[in-house]
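ARCHIVE CARD
SHELF: 3
SLOT: left
DATA:
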Amino acid sequence: EDLPSVIDMYSTVTKRGHECLVYDLGEDLWLCMMIIQRGWRVRYCALSDVFTQCPEELSEFLKQRRRWTVSGTVNILRVLFYWHSYVRHGGFTLIHILYQASVAFFGILVGP
């Protein structure tokens, strides 16, 4: 598939409760995984400038971590469900996918 289909999917409005776990909470991870799933590459760029609003209080930080844990888990489940397309187009191996899933699920057990 091409990049415009990714952009259309990325701009989808949330209509059901479970969609917000992917579309609204971890949208950057979801976008990257859609791009990889379609055979595109996501690369690190050390020269990029990124701006964000960081939590200032511990309670805000813990809420952020909880949101990231939920969205990360949902995205890992999507990768497990569509593993064949990540292996075929994304250069992933099944061992890599299972390793990432185990790390994510371990993080749920020990994280905030």
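SLOT: right
DATA:
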Amino acid sequence: MVDRLVDSEANARRIANVENCFGGEVLAAPNRVLVGEGVLQKQCRKQLKPRQFFLFNDIVIYGTIIMHRKKYNNIHILPLDEVRIVALDDIGPERQNGWQIISPRKSFNVYAANSSEKNEWIQHLNTCIESCQKQKR
């Protein structure tokens, strides 16, 4: 599916929209495809905070929500060829459906709204990570 979207107009529009939401941050790159997006709860120092995540075929980015679907800031970009994913066990009512994103730059826990969303995110992340690592070899 990613191959089909690489040069599509719809993909270019979606990426341009994400760039605009982050104040013009340049995210378009050759062969880059926006795979998915959503709000996840990111474990910050003392509490969970909602963050907007965007999964591309080669990077994952996230930022603070200023206006949902309109404006985000504090963009963080993690190259997927450096990322590892580890599913987390549920701990109490607030720490369910989580996984850890591990990279040399930054590592943290995130939590989805339900188990099916968690499974979809992990599946898509692992598929994109494997693809990036194969291309790197």
